[in-house]
Amino acid sequence: MIRARRIWATAVAVLAIVGASPGWAQAQPASETRPPAADRGEGLPPDWSITGEGAARQLVWRSDERVPMGDARVEFYAGDRLLGRPAQAKDGRTFRLGLDGVRLDSVRDLQVRAAGRRLDAPGTAPGASSGARSGVTVPERLPANPVDPGKPGAYRTVTGEYDLPPVRLPGFAQPVEMRAVVVAPKNADGRRPLALFLHGRHFTCYTPQGEVTGDWPCAAGAEPVPSHRGYLRDQRLLASQGYVTVSISANGINGQDWSAEDGGAQARSSLVRQHLAHWADWSAQPGSAPAAVRQAPRADLSRVLLVGHSRGGEGVNRAAMDSLYPPPADQDGYHGRVRWHIRGTVLIGPTIFGQNPVPDVPSMTILPGCDGDVSDLQGQVYVDGTRRVSRGAALHSAVYVVGANHNFFNSEWTPGQAEAPADDDFYNDEEQPDPVCSPGTRTRLTADQQHKAGASYIAAAARLFVAKDDRVRPLLDGSGRRAPSADPARVLTHAVGAGRGAGFLPDGKVTVSGGRLCSAVDPSAAKACLSSETTGGSPHFAQWETDREPGRRAVALSWSSAGSAARIRPDRPLSLAGGKALALRVIVPPNTTGTQLDVSVTDSAGRHRTLGRVKADGLPGSDRTASYWAHEVRVPIGSDDAAALDLKHIKSLELTPRSRSGKAWLMDAWAWRPGTPVVREAPLPRVDIGRLTVKEGNSGVRNYRVPVRVAGQGDGQVRLFVSDPVTGRVTDRLVTVRPGTHALDVPVKVEGNPRFGNDIEHDVFVKAVRTAVVGSHRGGVTVENDDPMPSLSIAPIADRVSEGKPLKWRVSLSAVADTDLGGTFTLLPVTDGPELSTKDVDPRWLLENSGQSPDPERPLSKVDGLSPGVSIPAGRTTAELVVPTLRDGVAEQPESVRLRLDDDSGEPQPGAPVVTGTVVDTP
Question: What is the pLDDT of residue 46?
Fold first, then answer.
């Protein structure tokens, strides 16, 4: 492992020796706040450094191995506090985060995470145990569904590709390709439904030598990675059943989305709709279509299914939203009419950075149990995040595939099948194999088994959402049926929506006794549903932009003996009338078996009745999986229950454990009835947060407002989060929005001054609560520093001393700054006389500045990573550079040390001065 140099937070500066050209040097800024140890980078873990100059001061982590380009965002944390999202360098190993406006209170617990998984400590996660969990359970094989959508249809298929002129998308410097592969039924009559596939974020380019990059466009000698060809198996299955299918390429977005505030969701939506617009043209005028399209039957744009993998999933979700509720024109890359109707979406291991699902478009989300990329399975929010937001007619299904990883749903991301280099995204430690997900375990799927299962369930969604065949609904809605074509995969499902009636929802106004109303996201172990010490994670509790989030809750149960009921009482009675069952989504710990709960209800007259008993076993799980996932269990509501209770006025739900001990979490409970209701999209207001960038100014106070756009129709309710840039504290409030009003008014006061400082970001986030949708969920006001950095000068205080006394130089700023400034030095070989050695300086100083020991004795210029530095705190103008020496009592010639200011790579700055200090024997 490469050990990072200890570098002062002020890293690189250009210094002027007193007497040299005035104003020649400029200082390097540190953090906006100024805890001295953190800002100087003291105690940095291995492989971390703080580098840069000017406004480019950065926190840098370097991995000992290349980190594959994936869909989950890489994030830097200090403990459990998000610092920001770094950019990945071309070497694939280096990640850099700009520190302007970032509070770096401590550097001792720096972490690198992607979807909750630690990248700087492979195989670990917050709360991970030291060893693998034993006793893995395997779900029972479910009964077969009478209709299996994974069986090939009657049509032969035809395949072709098209490549249109590239398009320009807002925020991206390079144009994006319009390339796709088409698979269609041969000799099919009439217009056929269209299924469009969008791949996720992966390497963009590769060479014959096996090198991969995230560049766009590809360099000379490199070829684009054909990620869009990775769903041919799925396309052929759908085409054999009568669908026209197209899989589009998005390398141009993948190569440029690292700086997009939404991770590229809006750009991907624009690309999808650009392709759909062409298909609408070609359907109207077939003669204008490319050859690959002309050989297919005409597409019926009133029946469109969108399929997205990873960030492609978030992209097609946004495309569905944008097709119903238009985005701001300046953010959008498509400005034509909507000439299509999206009937449903399929989201495979998706990201959902905005946590903004479309409530009135049916969806199926595949959650890969061994996902090593989007490992927190945040796509669960496409289900949970739709509850009570709109009409509730659309089915939103979660499909948990035990033993599936992230990549193998795409053959071009699968080793042995891909043209470009590919790998298994689930990290396998051969010394500590994972009991669930390491290759060869009884729960891990092979690539072929996984892709076959994925194709079957994509076809199930197409048959339900587009063809309206209710016979396949039991495969998706938690009814406990399997598609034999997906065998041997173990696939479990649950759902919300689809006309489920009144529900017990912990997110709403409820009181709980005998259990604990817990928070999905909260740093307090007493409030959180799962503490940070829990082994493994839960897709239901995936973190968003904040470390605590009101409005996302569950009911936690814990018991050491049977018989003690937990009671959930909403603020008003609910109606279960017309329901055929009460469907509950219940989490039990992974690898547990036999959890049993009696389910009872009480009506407003106080009549109590037990509807039945449910049983739940935990998913197979380890410390590296998100296996705290809710099973759907049901108890019937019969005519005898209707006779004994007033089902129109049920005031409470009771859960009574009947197993000896255990834990469980209730996500929700609903009145369920079979069938798939007709979905009619509601007219809703849409909220988009923008970002305004302003200059600080030299004086006075200016007032700005976060740009917010509310469009569409009707009233809605959202939760607004506002982050304080100084303290990092986030406040929230519920806001009612409607087009043409300014309820989402976030004022920002900017005080100008002539002092150099960091840029300051006033961030806000928003999430839909009721009858609203959110497009761009994040924005704010960025206040740019517009003052020049002060110059630095250096003058000797004591540059010729007796041994045992410190060498000292005074480093001075030309003006006071609002942030810490300073510089870092590299030691050069002495060219005239002996050089100070590791035995001539204080060993503590040597350790703090290099991490090295004095033994074996060697010249200071030969010490790996020795980089003494100086930091001038905000509000001050001077600091001292000190080299403490030791008295050895040995008669010897004067010894010297030479220091030069360098950049992080060890290269000198042009014209950088060299300071020299000399130590002589004590008289």
Answer: 76
Q: What is the DSSP letter of 464?
A: I
Between CA 881 and CA 814 the distance in angstroms is 17
pLDDT in tens, 880-905: 999 999 998 888 999 999 998 775 45
- Give the whole-angstrom CA distance, residue 883 versus residue 867: 11
Alpha-carbon span 32 to 40, nearest angstrom: 13
Residue 380 CA, distance from chain mean position? 13
Residue with tokens 């063809």: 467
- Burial class from Cβ neighbours inside 10 Å (0-12, 13-18, 19+) for residue 177 reads buried
The H or E element containing residue 769 is strand 760-770
Strands 708-712 and 685-689: antiparallel
- The tokens for 902 are 């360098």
Integer Cα distance of 779 and 259 in angstroms: 13
Q: For residue 597, give every residue at least 6 positions away whose Cβ sits within 8 Å of its Cβ, in sequence order, or none.
A: 586, 613, 614, 616, 655, 656, 657, 658, 664
607: its two tokens: 């009549």
Structure tokens at 886: 């030791």
Reported as a single tens digit per residue, the pLDDT across 423-481 is 999 988 888 999 999 999 999 999 999 999 999 999 999 999 999 999 999 999 999 99
- CA 160, distance to chain mean position in Å, is 35
CA 677 remoteness from chain centre: 33
Q: Do residues 53 and 11 lie in contact, with contact meaning Cβ atoms separated by under 8 Å?
A: yes
Angle at 64 between CA 230 and CA 216, to 5 degrees: 40
* Helix residue ranges, H only, 242-386: 251-254, 265-284, 291-294, 311-324, 381-384
Residue 32 identity: E
Strand ranges of the sheet holding 807-813, from the earlier edge strand across to the other edge: 15-17, 792-798, 807-813, 878-883
The distance in angstroms from the start CA to the end CA of the chain is 46
DSSP type of residue 1:
-
| E-state strands within 310-453 | 342-348, 363-368, 396-401
Q: Is 461 in a helix, a strand, or coil?
A: helix
Give which of 585, 626, 548, 554 is closest to 377, Cα–Cα.
626
Token pair belonging to 660? 């000896």
Please give the model's pTM, rounded to 2 decimal places: 0.87
The span from the CA of 772 to the CA of 359, in Å, is 9
Size (the chain), residues: 923
382-420 pLDDT per residue, tens: 999 999 999 999 999 999 999 999 999 999 999 999 999
Q: Which of 265, 381, 249, 284 has its CA nearest to residue 327? A: 265
DSSP character for 844?
Answer: H
pLDDT tens column, 239-263: 999 999 999 999 999 999 998 999 9
- Give the per-residue pLDDT at 910: 72
Distance CA 871, CA 140 (A): 62
d(CA 229, CA 680): 34
d(CA 71, CA 227) in angstroms, rounded, equals 13
- Asked if the bond preceding 854 is cis, omega within 30° of 0, the reply is no
- Asked whether the beta carbons of 690 and 764 are under 8 A apart, the reply is no
Q: What are phi and psi of 91, to 5 degrees?
A: -75, -10
**For residue 856, is the peptide bond before it cis, meaning its omega torsion is within 30 degrees of 0?**
yes
| Element (DSSP H or E) covering residue 596 | strand 595-603
**Residue (of 491, 550, 558, 555) closest to 521 by Cα position:** 550
Residue with token string 């990201």: 351
Q: How many whole angstroms separate alpha carbon 851 and alpha carbon 853?
A: 7
